[in-house]
Structures are given as C-alpha cells and as structure tokens.
Design brief:
Blueprint (H helix, E strand, L loop, with lengths): L66 H50 L2 E5 L2 E6 L5 E6 L3 E8 L1 H6 L1 E8 L6 E8 H15 L24 E5 L2 H9 L2 H20 L4 H14 L1 H10 L3 E5 L2 E6 L4 E6 L4 E8 L9 E7 L14 E6 L1 H11 L28 E4 L3 E6 L4 E7 L5 E5 L2 H6 L1 E8 L2 E10 H19 L3
Antiparallel strand pairs: 1-2, 2-3, 4-5, 4-10, 5-6, 7-8, 8-9, 9-10, 11-12, 11-16, 12-13, 14-15, 15-16, 17-18, 18-19
Length: about 500
C-alpha cells in the first residue's frame, strides 16, 4: 500500500504548467521574492524605468499660442500713451498710424519669439520655467516656499478664454514667474496641482476629458463671509478728494477755453487725458474691487474680485503678519472703513490698487468686526489706546490726541493719522524684532518711538511715547513675542 506524500515534500507540489506550443516557458521568481502583479483586464502593464535610471521627466508645456497677440494688444495702449497727442499733431494721422503699426508689429514679433522659447513643467516638488533665446534661463521654484497661486483674467484674456497664473513665494519682493497666458482649464488644474504639492497632499486627478474632479484641499468646507455691494463701492470712490475736486477742475478748464476762444483737437484731447489721470486711482479701485467676495475654508481666506480683470486667490492665515484698518476722512460721513492685510510672501506693490491683500474694500464697523473675528479672533477694533504725553504736541501739534498704542491679550495695536485715521494690529507671534528709536527733538523731549517689525511688511510703530514707557513697552513686546512663538 502506497503512503501519501508528506505536505511540503517535492512530491506534494503540483506539476508545473506547460506553456502553449510556440511560447517560451514562464520564469518563476526566486523563493522569498514577491510574485509579479498582473494588471487588470483591459489595462496595459506598467512600464518600470530601467534600473539605475531616474523616472521619466514630465515634458515641457508651452503657453497658449494666442499669448503673443495678447501681449501685443496690451502693449498697444502703452505705445499710444508713449507717443502722446503732441506727436499726432506734428506728424499727422497717417504717419502716426504707421508708426503705431510698426511698433506694434515689433512687439508681437518679440512676444512670438519669447513664446516659442518659453516652457514650464513640474519636476518633483519644483516648478521649472525655461525661457530665453540667446541667454537660456531656467527658474526653479520650490513648492514648499509657495504661498498662493492666483488666477488672473484680464479683459482680453476673458474674451479669449485664457488666464494668467501668478505665484507668490516666501520672501519674494514681487510676483514670481507669471505664466501668461494659458487656457482657463489648464490654469485651474495647474493651480490645484501646485497647491496640493505645496500642502504635501496628493493633487487632484483629472478625469478622462481633462477636467479636474477633486477640489483643492479644504474647498468642500468653504464658508461665505462677505459680499461688498457694488453701489457702496461706487459711492465710496465718489467720496474721495479726486472725485470731489474734479467738477471744480472742469469748470476752470471750461472758463479758460471760453476766454481764450481756442477749441483745437490737441488742446481738448490733452485736457481730457489730464482729467482721466485725476480719476485714474478711484476708477481703478472700482474696477479692481468689483463684485468683491470673501470666503473661508481650511486653506485660508478665499478672495475673488474684479470686473475687467478678475482675480481669485487664497490667503493663508498663517502668513498674515498684520491687519490694517483705515477710516478715510470723507467716509466718516457714512461710518465706513476699509480692512487690508499684511501677508508674508506677497508682492509689496507700492500701488495699493494692485496689491493682493484686500480684506474688505468698504464696509460698516459691524461687518468689519465680524471679518476681523475670522482673521484674529478676540480682537476688538474699538479698543482703548492710551495717547502719548502732552509734550508730544511739540512733535505733532495737531495729531497728538489721535496717536495711541497699547497691548491686548493677543495683539499690539497702534493708532495714527489726523485726516485719514489708521489702526494697525500685529499679533505677538508675528513680531520679528523690536526697536526703540529717538530723533534729536525726541531726545530733548524725553520721547521715543517703539517699532515692532514683521516679515515683509512695515509692522507697527508707537510714536512719541515717554522714554521710560517706551523701554518698558519694548521689553514687554519682546517677552510676549517670544512666548507666543514658543511651542506649548
């Protein structure tokens, strides 16, 4: 009688399966190594890179082919402004049009060459941008330093279905590596991908038709905070010195024309251009803040605004260095104020219209307090701030009663401004350094100014405090800033 083979013995193993005729036999992996995984039915097998070689690099992508035309159209206004009305009067309409055409064609050709030699792609955790014809240049932007990716759509880009991507990085003095222009769908997909990599989360996966299915992390928990009425925005810009003084300027010009009896085209055009320049800042602010929307999600504050140029941006709350509150003189009739942010890594454009730090372009105190609670919870905008000593009138004869500075549980706050009242609120954790400064007159009056410096912003300054109070305030600020930055 034959005994059955013991388990694990060679005789207990099933006989090897013979391959079909004409095919090589399958190679079994060595013992102790994982078995190869077959791909699902209908899908191609995964191709592994050869041993010792890096994975395949994502191919470079070019900007949209219409980008040179949009750059040329944007330069048309600059060319006409540079030639001025006086040039038109000297050379005539024919030569003027020919000169504009030649310059415009030159700009388009240069833009076309630049477009042909510009490309971008994501390599690991870097966005690399290649540009240049004679001098090739490659910029590598580490995504861990990325603060925000702004999708901007100027008027011509809106008409052509394009958008511009603007990147803000830590320590950048200006917008880093703008990509102008790409398709809107590509801009949104690239923005989500970069933000996902910067947040160390997997980026959203595109569907078969190229649309992004998964939102940016935190987008599902978005809450609406504020919508500014366009009517209030218009009225606020009418309550500005430029708008109020414009009728007097128009009346003066009309009287001059009537008395001189000259109504030449050049004179009228130059006058209208000068008047337009007076209204430029209020008009730009209306266009920039049109349909202002503010929301909140896990990633930070979501800001969207603009008429001719729409902007959509995320402001990370952990990068907010300070909050500024402004009460313009003429707005006090309506009880309105404005909120703005100082954000580390955002470009410090001197023109406040182009700054991406608007928190509330116009609103009442209750709305401002509600918005402030989202940025700095527990901070009261009506807090009492002690003024400097009376001898500070020798330095600020009229503004001494307006000046103020004080400490709350969470922030250092200073107030200044005679006609345009301003309040600056700095969280203790954002203070980088504290300075005590004395000028010649302050030394004679035993006064000093205490500066609290922040990263990438002007910070806050308590002006003309008593010298003993100034040193005590500086010591307290240093201690609170150190305690706020210490992990608990």
């Amino acid at each position: 009688m034959t005994e059955p083979p013991a388990p694990g013995s060679p005789a207990a193993q099933p006989p090897p399966t013979q391959p079909p005729a004409g095919q090589p036999p399958a190679v079994e992996p060595p013992a102790g190594q994982p078995q190869p995984v077959e791909p699902p039915a209908g899908q191609p097998p995964a191709v592994e890179p050869p041993a010792g070689q890096p994975p395949a690099v994502e191919p470079r992508k070019r900007l949209h082919p219409l980008s040179p035309l949009l750059h040329g159209a944007n330069s048309l206004v600059v060319i006409i402004a540079a030639l001025s009305w006086q040039t038109l009067g000297r050379v005539g309409i024919g030569w003027y049009a020919a000169l504009v055409t030649v310059l415009l064609l030159g700009v388009v050709v240069l833009s076309l060459v630049s477009w042909y030699n510009t490309g971008y792609h994501v390599v690991g955790r870097e966005l690399r941008i290649h540009e240049g014809l004679l001098w090739r240049r490659t910029r590598a932007i580490p995504l861990e330093r990325l603060q925000s990716v702004e999708v901007v759509r100027p008027l011509l880009a809106q008409l052509s279905g394009l958008a511009e991507l603007r990147l803000e990085v830590v320590g950048g003095g200006k917008t880093e590596a703008p990509l102008a222009y790409v398709a809107v769908a590509d801009a949104v997909a690239l923005r989500e991908r970069l933000l996902g990599l910067a947040a160390r989360t997997p980026p959203s996966t595109p569907s078969g038709d190229g649309r992004v299915e998964a939102p940016v992390p935190g987008e599902l928990n978005r809450r609406h905070l504020l919508s500014v009425a366009n009517r209030d925005l218009l009225v606020s810009q009418l309550l500005t010195p430029q708008a109020l003084l414009l009728p007097f300027g128009v009346a003066f010009v009309v009287v001059q024309f009537l008395s001189a009896g000259s109504w030449s085209f050049i004179a009228v055009a130059s006058t209208l251009t000068a008047m337009a320049g007076v209204l430029l800042q209020p008009l730009r602010r209306v266009l920039a803040d049109w349909n202002f929307q503010l929301g909140r999600d896990e990633a930070g504050l979501r800001v969207r605004h603009g008429l001719l140029e729409t902007r959509a941006q995320t402001v990370p709350l952990d990068r907010v260095q300070a909050v500024g509150v402004t009460w313009p003189l003429l707005w006090r009739v309506k009880g309105w104020l404005r909120l703005r942010l100082e954000v580390a890594g955002f470009s410090t454009d001197a023109d406040a219209v182009n700054r991406a730090d608007q928190l509330m372009p116009v609103g009442d105190p209750d709305t401002a307090q509600r918005v402030m609670a989202e940025v700095l919870p527990g901070v009261d905008l009506t807090m009492t701030l002690p003024p400097p000593p009376r001898r500070a009138r020798w330095v600020h004869p009229l503004a001494q009663p307006v000046l103020g500075a004080g400490l709350s549980e969470q922030v250092f706050a200073v107030r200044q401004g005679l006609l345009t009242r301003q309040l600056v609120v700095v969280p203790y954790a954002r203070i980088q350094s504290v300075r005590v400064v004395q000028g010649p007159l302050q030394r004679r009056l035993r006064l000093a100014t205490v500066h609290a410096d922040t990263a990438g912003g002007p910070g806050a300054a308590a002006q003309d405090r008593d010298i003993a109070e100034a040193w005590a305030l500086a010591a307290e600020l240093t201690a609170r800033a150190r305690a706020a930055r210490t992990p608990r």
